[in-house]
Each structure stands twice: as structure tokens, then as C-alpha cells.
Design brief:
about 80 residues, about 10% strand, 5 helices, DNA-binding, homodimer, 2 strands, Helix-turn-helix domain-containing protein (chains A, B), Lambda_DNA-bd_dom_sf (chains A, B), alpha+beta
Chain lengths: ~80, ~80
Amino acid sequence: MNQIARTTKDIGNLLRNARKAKGLTQGELASRAGVWQRTISNIETSTSGAKLETVFDLLAALDLEIHIVPRSKMTPGDLEDIF
Amino acid sequence: MNQIARTTKDIGNLLRNARKAKGLTQGELASRAGVWQRTISNIETSTSGAKLETVFDLLAALDLEIHIVPRSKMTPGDLEDIF
DNA sequence: GCCTTTTATGATCTATAAAGCATATTGACG
DNA sequence: CGTCAATATGCTTTATAGATCATAAAAGGC
């Protein structure tokens, strides 16, 4: 399950899924990442555009990293994540 | 050559490499992505933390996308990008 | 259905990125 | 070395994210 992100909305959804997969609440992740619960809520719901730095803080706390790759064609499996 | 980014600095370096690989100037990329040359310079040199949205604009203009994956152990090849 | 936990959100303040103008500085090339 | 293109940067304004207090709303368990 390779997670593709092309928009801030993708990142929001993806971070929420990753957080839940690890069984963390927004509050727990917030304290781990050194950000505010409010900020995580905003990012996950795409209420506000996030700063790159903040996203990296969250990814680190979730033990994730970003790979930059040439744009791939949409694979069937990816559609599940959208709809 | 899978590009790993864990910090804003990584993103800056990576965007610069990708831009040059496509033979684009900052000005050209700026007009394609709808941002300012100034902004690209700032991001590539990590002069200022970028907004996630801006990074996505640049990635789209470079035909790149982000994959979120579990943190990998550092591979030997990656060290070249650091030192 | 109630209670607890979790998430969303109102309001204000501060910090800072991007817009917008510019020019200075650097780098590549003949 | 001189020239031109490319990149870096000074400054001011505007937009907006994050900090910080709070509480409201929603979700989940019993």
C-alpha cells in the first residue's frame, strides 16, 4: 500500500489514516510531534494549509518519510483511497 | 534513484536537482507553477520554511509526486546526497 | 440513552511565508 | 575580462499558519 499525495488534502487524509493505524489520538500525536492538537485537526481536515515543517514533524512522529518520485499513472488500488 | 526527504532542507535540494534535471530556470518554473522566482529561491536555499501548498505547486510543475512510506534505514546511496 | 474520550472550532495574538516591487550578486561563456 | 543570464536578497504589505486560551460537537463504549 503505497500512499500517493498530490495535494494538501491527500496529506491530511493520509496523516489521519497513519495516525489511526498506530492507535494514536490527535492529542498524543501532538505532544509527540511538539505541535498542537488544534494544528493536527486543521491539517487532517484541510481546514488550513500547513507548513512543510509541521508536516515533517508529524511524519517523523509517525515514523514515516517522504519519497519524491515521477508522477505515476493512477493505479486501480489508489482509487479506493479517494472514494 | 529514489529521493528521500525528511526535512525542508531535503525538499529544497531535491527540488533544485529536479528543476535542473529538467533544464528549467527558477523563473521558468515560477511561471509554470504560479509562484515567484523569489519564493523558489527561498525554498531551494531553505531561506524560509515553505508552505505545503507551494511545494505541491512546484512538484506538479515538475511532474513529480510524493509517496509517503515507512521510514527506511539509510542506504549507502543516500549518503551521497548529504555529503 | 448517558458518559467519557476525542475531535472540531471561536477568538485573539504573534510569527512568518508569499506577493510585489526592486537591485545586487553570482555564474557561465565567448 | 566583459557581458548576459540566472540567482539571491532588501524592503513593505498582505495573507495566513501556529500558539494559546477556551468550549462545543461528535464519536465510541457500556
